[in-house]
Amino acid sequence: MHQIIMNLCSNAVHAMPQGGVLGIALVRVRFGAPVAFSHGALGNGDFVRLTVKDTGIGIPADVLERIFNPFFTTRRAGEGTGLGLSLVDGIVREYGGGIDVQTAPGEGTRFDVYLPVTDAPPASHEHGRESLPHGDGQVVLLVDDEDTLVTLGEEVLAELGYEPVGFRSSIAAWEALLTEPNRFDVVITDQTMPEPTGLALAARIRTLRPGLPVILYSGFSNTTLERDAREEGVLAVLRKPLRQADIAEALARAFQPASSH
Ligand SMILES: Nc1ncnc2c1ncn2[C@@H]1O[C@H](COP(=O)(O)OP(=O)(O)OP(=O)(O)O)[C@@H](O)[C@H]1O
Ligand SMILES: [Mg+2]
After folding, report:
1. How far apart are CA 125 and CA 10, in angstroms?
2. CA 199 / ligand 1 centre spacing (Å)
3. How do residues 203-248 score in pLDDT, each as one tens digit?
4. Distance 168 CA to ligand 2 centre (A)
């Protein structure tokens, strides 16, 4: 579900470079007869419908035909993998659901994801957020050049019991560190940013405040990056998209009493 929502919302945000309204809704629906969608069909029965709609650029007909194809993207090379919707499609199919897309160029797009209602008991909460390690008000410096990721990250960190302080550029983060080096208890940074990169920032922090734990995240898994990060004393390298559990665990490691290292 997390991946479905994140991918649809990220597409919606990209479709509204000038801003707009992102709508998300969840309702239960019943089909008395089979229905056909723009993408797939469903038999009758009870479903939950997740709607993600935007007031963005819309999707032209020739593009609409191909949006679910793996690697199909209209974004610039290096910006989109074109895997977002094919992943969503795969997950929805696996659950026996369907997707309906309505779009009008210049007006916006609406994705309706239908998933069958089930009587099965909910999965165990073993790995739920209740069982995640929580913080105790430690101040976390978070830096990412993507605005939405800073906002989202701050929410996740606050939910985990930390005190987030977000920055939209590594330069701003570095200036804050220089001004008040002891204000922060841990740093979480994106790798790919205009100079200094996350790794370069980690190197600077190491000179300024050697004991300050740094957690780095990146969109690419890359053994060179992991090795370089380790050499700079980086505590953990996480993959994007960031999962709350990964953040919680990396932070817990940062604050582990030295004796249990
Ligand atoms: N809400 C939307 N509004 C307009 N176009 C969309 C929308 N959602 C998807 N698209 C179009 O469908 C294409 C494929 O989307 P998909 O999520 O599969 O890949 P992507 O967003 O390009 O790349 P990635 O998901 O890896 O960042 C997009 O490049 C875009 O052209
Ligand atoms: Mg996408």
Report:
1. 27
2. 30
3. 999 999 999 999 999 987 678 899 999 999 999 999 888 889 999 9
4. 22
Report which ligand 1 atom has the smallest distance to the Cα of 12: 1
User: 126-260 architecture in CATH?
Assistant: 3-Layer(aba) Sandwich (3.40)
Residues lining ligand 1, judged by CB closer than 6 Å?
7, 11-12, 15, 54, 56-57, 59, 63, 67, 72-75, 80-86, 109
Return the domain boundaries, the chain.
2-116, 126-260
Residue nearest to atom 5 of ligand 1 (CA): 59
Q: In the numeric block, which tokens belong to residue 79? A: 């910006």
**Ligand 2 centre from 254 Cα, in Å?**
32
CA pair distance 33, 43, nearest whole angstrom: 7
pLDDT in tens, 138-176: 999 999 999 888 998 999 999 999 999 999 999 999 999
Instruction: Given CATH 3.40.50.1110, say whether it is the number of domain 2-116.
Output: no
